[in-house]
Prior knowledge:
The protein is an alpha/beta fold and 456 residues long. It has 13 helices and 14 strands. Strands 13-12-11-7-10-9-8-14 form an 8-stranded mixed β-sheet. The chain has a 6-stranded parallel β-sheet with strand order 3-2-1-4-5-6, with helices on both faces.
Amino acid sequence: xxxxxxxxxxxxxxxxxxxxxxxxxxxxxxxxxxxxxxxxxxxxxxxxxxxxxxxxxxxxxxxxxxxxxxxxxxxxxxxxxxxxxxxxxxxxxxxxxxxxxxxxxxxxxxxxxxxxxxxxxxxxxxxxxxxxxxxxxxxxxxxxxxxxxxxxxxxxxxxxxxxxxxxxxxxxxxxxxxxxxxxxxxxxxxxxxxxxxxxxxxxxxxxxxxxxxxxxxxxxxxxxxxxxxxxxxxxxxxxxxxxxxxxxxxxxxxxxxxxxxxxxxxxxxxxxxxxxxxxxxxxxxxxxxxxxxxxxxxxxxxxxxxxxxxxxxxxxxxxxxxxxxxxxxxxxxxxxxxxxxxxxxxxxxxxxxxxxxxxxxxxxxxxxxxxxxxxxxxxxxxxxxxxxxxxxxxxxxxxxxxxxxxxxxxxxxxxxxxxxxxxxxxxxxxxxxxxxxxxxxxxxxxxxxxxxxxxx
Length: 456
């Protein structure tokens, strides 16, 4: 491990920015990483809690600890960090908030030797994930890895190989992608994949955030290709990229441009734009920046021949799905264009889900309030614990997967796809031309040394 695992602890804020609703929600309720859904771990209290170690005790480690503390099927027993003061600080926080004080260790090996562990949460900088995941999986523990999977495609592919081997042994391996469990994301994914939007035609993903110069100066690793892995796309935009791919399906080609316009002493981009084409024929626009003062929102739009949806800071801003069999072809994931709209069985009329389709679109009304609870609508008061709840929803799924002997809602393969899109953005921007998504996945461009802006 590196002392850089804890550099984020002194930063002003984690990448899920305060006040944005980036971890929205008032309770650990509905939501799943798969369209079929999977609720909270039922009956977790009937079995002994799963013992958990957190590796990396910085800002994101704190969030994991708080989420784990709320999951009755989990017990935090070990904290691992090369810096003793970091592990001690988190142990004291856990204790001060009513939890049993976990033991502190300087390495994962020491923790594995010192206490039986069922689950290891890897919360270190991304470049250290593969070694820690390999060590944890070799011990027989289940593993959850913080996003992004890694900053290197070769290392990420190695993690995917390790995960496949572990899954064959019955172990659960998941990567944090908590926004796939947000109620707004779940209902949009269902509608897109069941054909309620008709044929998916396009998408727009935009992360218009602001990071000060002080943010980048707060740690030597920030803004570096080697350890940060990239800028606005890799760090601030990766969750939005993940949702875009989840909604629209498998990418085919990416063409991108990047620039560094509002910061100094930084290697990576603070603005990136890209166009993405998908197997279904759908097209999408990606925009990610940390140079949008004073900071706006993260927004995903999905558009189809029978409906559209907008998620703004993880809350549902707009939703209309007419269902029916109109439009042309299947949606991005091959779903039936005639599928019903989930969560709106009571809708009726030309403006209601599943009602008579109005080809002009003039009678369409926003159905968002019909498909999610009021606290999941854009404009709702943001819960103070929304960052914790986002991770808790995914931990609910992980515990249930372990207990039920099934795969988790988000697997390493899902994270590898999203990472490959990010890598494609950087490779395309560096080379100055479009790149094929499969060439990124299979390693054709692994030797490209990426830079901000096109290489001369």
